[in-house]
Design goal:
This protein has 26 helices and 20 strands. The chain has about 650 residues and is of the alpha/beta class. The strands form three sheets. Strands 11, 12, 13, 14, 15, 16, 17, 18, 19 and 20 form a ten-stranded mixed beta sheet that branches. Strands 2-1-3-4-5 form a five-stranded parallel beta sheet. The chain folds into four domains: about 60 residues, no CATH class; about 200 residues, Rossmann fold, CATH 3.40.50.1110; about 140 residues, Rossmann fold, CATH 3.40.50.1000; about 230 residues, Gcn5-related N-acetyltransferase (GNAT) (Aminopeptidase). The chain is globular and about 80 Å long. The chain is about 45% helix and about 20% strand.
């Protein structure tokens, strides 16, 4: 399949159709990635890199773009092709800025460098062992290496601090694998052991730099070097100064693509598993509960490993669901009663077992959970079911599990669909909250009108300035909220912290609860004061609490607060994206009037500049609409909302 797929891609290139047919190209590159051949994927990435993002954007202007600067100690240009391909697999375009040889210190230390002038969304600083061994004496001991490692770690800490001040987005470093060509030079085994010890200790310290630098991510290279993956190619290292092998660069590019996907709010939220020959071995309808394989045999243990992996993923805030062509009662009996099952019914937010097409069940599940189908990762062993879901729901990430269950877990984890920069207490409660949401929807069916339902729901809302413990959650909302996200500003925790420390800025969190439980922090408002005007730079609300009046209640509270603070007006902004079209009239529907001309442009350049370029290619000022409320008449919150606000030290029920 790989050769045929690659031939098709090159045929499109020869006919000048790659940019015009980019959606098809994305699927072709995805197929190359699934084939497991890094050379094919690298060649495809090099082809796409030559074409460039702008050519694709002319044909498909809504394609997400990520600007990435690549710098390092050795030759780093070899990363561009694999990274272009990996991002293409996820429907994203790469706009690269590649630094010169051994330019990482100048690039990151100087705020006037070309790297910072490019304003990338992320910076990849690719380092290897040569950054250390280039500075040890010709005749060296492990203690010489330890000294240089200490110097480099101190330098990287300073560079991370410089990046926090001058850059934006994420700085990505990597641990330094120790090549055998260096370790084997120490022929005394005790000295070689000391070298290994100081090297591993330095890498551990490098990983811990993330604790002190919120904008920093360090990719651990060691887990990528399993199997037969070579660390380096001696000829490439000698003649081109490329110190990582093409195979390792391909794996590293995949990890970086996972990080960029998460940093732009595209981490998945829900793992949907088939059951027969996926969660357990065999077909329940044919083999019966006693005949399925779960443990006790080598093959059964492979299915248990997948169950343990799914449960581990779910323990970190990922929703877990099952969609199976089975009768529901036997499935429930297995999940509740089978002694060898690791996954139980309570681990799933919903178990769907019927004979409907799986893509229909996925649509219904998305509607029940209040999330988009693009939040799903669907894993199934059937090529037919996987192909049908891919055709009917192209936004669903589909994992085709092959016939050997020993490979299922690696296949499930390979693309890091759920990787995120960090998790919060709210994340850990997410499965419980979505179960509560399903209870709310069941509760709704008992009412003839939405008004009666909302009144009986007993909604309680608190609008307050964000606490230190809520900073990470506010960042996460900016990264992962798409539907009710008025300007799609994507902020890392460090960005939110800077705003919270600005005396002229407001970083507000929205908490909600009702008769079914506490929803936690479900939204945020980012604003700043400018003379006698309050500017709402962004307003976000989780899709699971939309259409309950919470957004109107919080906007009303903010307008009242601005009036009490002596403001003459409030301005708000809307920047359209691929997913927030439904809230384009939100401000007009709540007493704001649109502004045009110079009045509208006075502030929109700042708003556009901080917006997420990965949401749309169009970052021009004209993409931002400006609205104003003169505070003459402020509508109160909906009657069914019990609102508490704590703004500027004032607590008002």
């Amino acid at each position: 399949m790989g050769d045929t797929t690659e031939d098709t891609l090159w045929s499109l290139h020869e006919r000048g159709r790659v940019a015009a047919e980019y959606p098809r190209v994305r699927r072709l590159v995805g197929a190359l990635g699934d084939s497991g051949d890094p050379d094919e994927l690298r060649r495809a990435g090099n082809l796409l890199a030559r074409i460039g993002a702008d050519a694709v954007l002319e044909e498909h202007p809504d394609t997400p773009v990520v600007s990435v600067a690549i710098t390092g100690h050795s030759t780093v240009s070899g990363l561009t092709g694999p990274l272009t391909a990996e991002l293409a697999r996820h429907g994203m375009l790469l706009r690269p800025h590649v630094g010169d040889f051994d330019s990482y210190v100048a690039d990151l230390a100087s705020p006037d460098s070309d790297l910072y002038a490019a304003r990338p969304d992320a910076v990849v600083c690719l380092l290897d062992a040569s950054v250390v061994f280039d500075e040890v004496p010709a005749v060296w001991q492990p203690e010489d290496v330890a000294r240089v490692l200490d110097e480099k770690l101190a330098l990287l800490g300073r560079l991370a601090t410089s990046f926090a001040a001058a850059g934006r987005g994420t700085l990505i470093l990597n641990t330094l694998p120790l090549p055998r060509v260096h370790a084997a030079q120490q022929i005394v085994l005790s000295a070689r052991a000391r070298l290994g010890a100081v090297w591993r200790e330095a890498n551990a310290r490098l990983l811990r730099l993330m604790d002190d630098h919120p904008e920093l991510v360090v990719v651990d290279i060691d887990p990528l070097l399993g199997g037969e993956l070579p660390l380096r190619d001696a000829r490439l290292g000698t003649y081109t100064k490329t110190q990582f092998s093409p195979q390792l660069l391909a794996e590293y590019a995949r990890e970086v693509a996972h990080l960029l996907r998460a940093a732009t709010g595209r981490a998945k939220k829900c793992l949907v598993l088939d059951l027969d020959n996926t969660v357990w071995g065999g077909v329940l309808g044919d083999d019966g509960p006693e005949g399925i394989e779960v443990a006790g045999t080598y093959r059964g243990e492979a299915f248990r490993t997948l169950q343990r992996t799914a449960r581990q993923i779910a323990s970190q805030g990922v929703l877990l669901a099952a969609v199976s062509k089975n009768d529901l009662d036997p499935v429930r009996r297995v999940l509740r009663e089978h002694a060898e099952m690791t996954l139980r019914e309570d681990d799933f937010v919903r178990v769907i077992a019927n004979w409907r097409p799986k893509h229909d069940n996925l649509r219904e599940l998305a509607d029940d959970l209040g999330i988009g189908v693009d939040s799903f990762v669907f894993a199934d062993d059937s090529p037919y079911e996987c192909g049908l879901v891919t055709r009917e729901l192209p936004d669903v990430a589909v994992i085709r599990l092959d016939d050997d269950p020993a490979l299922h877990t690696e296949r499930l984890l390979r693309d890091g669909w759920f990787d995120v920069r960090g998790i919060t207490a709210d994340d850990l409660r997410r499965p419980e909250r979505y179960r509560e949401e399903l209870s709310r929807k069941d509760f709704l069916h008992g009412f003839e009108s939405l008004t009666d339902y909302l009144r009986e729901l007993d909604i309680r809302v608190r609008l307050a300035e964000a606490s230190d413990s809520e900073i990470a959650r506010v960042s996460q909302l900016t990264l992962r909220t798409n539907q009710f996200n008025l300007t799609t500003r994507r902020l890392q925790p460090a960005d939110v912290t800077r705003l919270a420390e600005d005396p002229d800025a407001l970083v507000l969190t929205i908490r909600s609860a009702d008769r079914f439980g506490d929803n936690g922090v479900v939204g945020a408002i980012l604003a700043h004061r400018d003379d006698d005007t309050l500017h709402i730079d962004n307003f976000l609300l989780s899709c699971r609490v939309l259409a309950r009046g919470i957004e109107q209640a919080c906007l009303s509270a903010l307008l009242s607060h601005a009036h009490r603070q002596g403001m003459r007006s409030v301005r708000a902004y809307y920047r359209p994206s691929a997913k927030n079209g439904k809230v384009g009239d939100f401000y007009v529907g709540n007493g704001f009037r649109p502004l045009e001309g110079d009045a509208a442009r006075a502030h929109t350049s700042d708003t556009a500049d901080t917006a997420d370029t990965a949401d749309t290619a169009d970052t021009a000022d004209t993409a931002v609409s400006t609205f104003q409320h003169d505070l003459a008449e402020i509508a109160g919150p909906p009657e069914h909302i019990k609102l508490t606000r704590s703004l500027g030290g004032q607590r008002t029920p």
